[in-house]
């Protein structure tokens, strides 16, 4: 009879060594499911530390299926779970930033808390998810963009998914997506729906070796830079972004968050295509704002206004729309 590994008592913060061993045991199924559920709930109720977040990410990274990426690749990704059901801002930003010449290794998944995740919307636009995954290295190298469907790269999460579903609440694994990009990017714009967690998350990123990253949280609990008001920003590395961003910093207008409320995959796909074809409004301004920050992080722009100008040129000149067409044709 196999003896199951015992998880440490999460009542007090774990050391780096004990956290590393605990998450290795969890991901390698050396623990019972109920023990895992109890451990994750207790961590969430106590409040995870940056060491625990970083070690959970290291354990997941060690078990993922990686791809090679060109120098300077970036990811624009949120943790999700903000409950705002917005249009696919980070997906649109990824296309715009890639059209500006910055390689984008977009990590994403299907919808969890919204009606249309990045994978759902891209698939509706015509991207073949299976082929896009198989050709991710090639499209990142030759087109400057790829989509890394989380389910294809994190087989260890198959054991965790039903446990998380049964728990039915946020746990440390809700924070893992942006921290376990299969392309090993060290430049990231990460949205988190909990402003109070932004400094903690940035500390974890620093422990994981990020070179240039920004953790952003709209003050209304949005997991991206908010087009409605102030956003908290915590940076890692030599990054020229302020600690607080408002839309006017990038020269765009404010819009209430409801103005970018999304729908099902067909609705979101139509909105994204209209945006790339030059449609003005709240969605465009949210994309310009977030793309501006990503371009500053990537060293393509020295300030938010300059980044927003580059992003607008990528849309209005047809570059971002053409990139999407070429990507779809590739798959």
TrEMBL record:
SUPFAM superfamilies reported for this sequence: Nucleoside phosphorylase/phosphoribosyltransferase catalytic domain, Nucleoside phosphorylase/phosphoribosyltransferase N-terminal domain
EC number(s) stated in the UniProt entry for this protein: 2.4.2.18
Glycosyl transferase family 3 N-terminal domain ranges (all copies): 13-63
Residues given in the record as 5-phospho-alpha-D-ribose 1-diphosphate binding sites: 78, 81-82, 86, 88-91, 106-114, 118
Cofactors demanded by this protein: Mg(2+)
Record has Glycosyltransferase as a keyword: yes
Chemical reaction(s) catalysed: N-(5-phospho-beta-D-ribosyl)anthranilate + diphosphate = 5-phospho-alpha-D-ribose 1-diphosphate + anthranilate
Cofactor note: Binds 2 magnesium ions per monomer.
Glycosyl transferase family domain residues: 73-320
Annotated keywords: Amino-acid biosynthesis, Aromatic amino acid biosynthesis, Glycosyltransferase, Magnesium, Metal-binding, Transferase, Tryptophan biosynthesis
Gene Ontology CC, one term: cytosol
A single BP term in Gene Ontology: L-tryptophan biosynthetic process
Group of enzyme by EC: transferase
Binding annotation for Mg(2+) 1: 90, 224
Binding locations of anthranilate 2: 164
Pathway participation: Amino-acid biosynthesis; L-tryptophan biosynthesis; L-tryptophan from chorismate: step 2/5
Binding site for Mg(2+) 2: 223-224
Binding site for anthranilate 1: 78, 109
GO molecular function: anthranilate phosphoribosyltransferase activity; magnesium ion binding
Family annotation (InterPro entries): Anthranilate_Pribosyl_Tfrase, Glycosyl_Trfase_fam3, Glycosyl_Trfase_fam3_N_dom, Glycosyl_Trfase_fam3_N_dom_sf, Nuc_phospho_transferase
Its job: Catalyzes the transfer of the phosphoribosyl group of 5-phosphorylribose-1-pyrophosphate (PRPP) to anthranilate to yield N-(5'-phosphoribosyl)-anthranilate (PRA).
Family from the record: In the C-terminal section; belongs to the anthranilate phosphoribosyltransferase family.
Self-association and partners: Homodimer.
Descriptive protein name: Anthranilate phosphoribosyltransferase
Organism: Sphingomonas endophytica
Lineage: Bacteria, Pseudomonadati, Pseudomonadota, Alphaproteobacteria, Sphingomonadales
Gene giving rise to this polypeptide: trpD
């Amino acid at each position: 009879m196999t003896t199951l590994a015992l998880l440490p008592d999460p009542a007090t913060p774990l050391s780096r060594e004990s956290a590393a061993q605990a998450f290795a045991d969890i991901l390698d199924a050396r623990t019972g499911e109920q023990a895992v559920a109890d451990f994750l709930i207790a961590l969430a109720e106590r409040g995870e530390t940056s060491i625990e977040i970083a070690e959970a990410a290291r354990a997941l990274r060690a078990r993922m299926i990686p791809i090679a990426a060109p120098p300077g690749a970036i990811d624009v990704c949120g943790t999700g779970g903000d409950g705002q059901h917005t249009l696919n801002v980070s997906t649109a930003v990824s296309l715009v930033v890639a059209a500006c010449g910055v390689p984008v290794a977009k990590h994403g998944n299907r919808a969890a808390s919204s009606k249309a995740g990045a994978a759902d919307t891209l698939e509706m636009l015509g991207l073949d998810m299976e082929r896009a995954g198989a050709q991710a290295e090639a499209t990142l190298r030759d087109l400057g963009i790829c989509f890394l469907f989380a389910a294809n790269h994190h087989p260890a999460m198959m054991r965790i998914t039903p446990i998380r579903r049964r728990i039915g609440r946020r746990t440390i694994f809700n924070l893992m997506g942006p921290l376990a990009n299969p392309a090993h990017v060290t430049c990231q714009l990460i949205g988190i729906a909990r402003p109070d967690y932004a400094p903690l998350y940035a500390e974890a990123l620093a422990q994981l070796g990020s070179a240039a990253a920004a953790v952003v949280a709209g003050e209304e609990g949005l997991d991206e830079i908010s087009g409605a008001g102030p956003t908290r920003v915590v940076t890692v590395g030599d990054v020229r972004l302020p600690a607080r961003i408002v839309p006017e910093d990038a020269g765009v207008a404010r819009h209430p968050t409801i103005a970018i409320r999304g729908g099902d995959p067909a609705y979101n796909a139509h909105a994204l295509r209209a945006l790339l074809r030059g449609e003005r409004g709240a969605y465009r301004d949210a994309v310009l704002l977030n793309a501006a920050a990503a371009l500053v992080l990537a060293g393509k722009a020295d300030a938010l206004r300059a980044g927003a100008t580059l992003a607008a040129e990528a849309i209005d000149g047809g570059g971002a729309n053409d990139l999407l067409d070429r990507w779809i044709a590739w798959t």
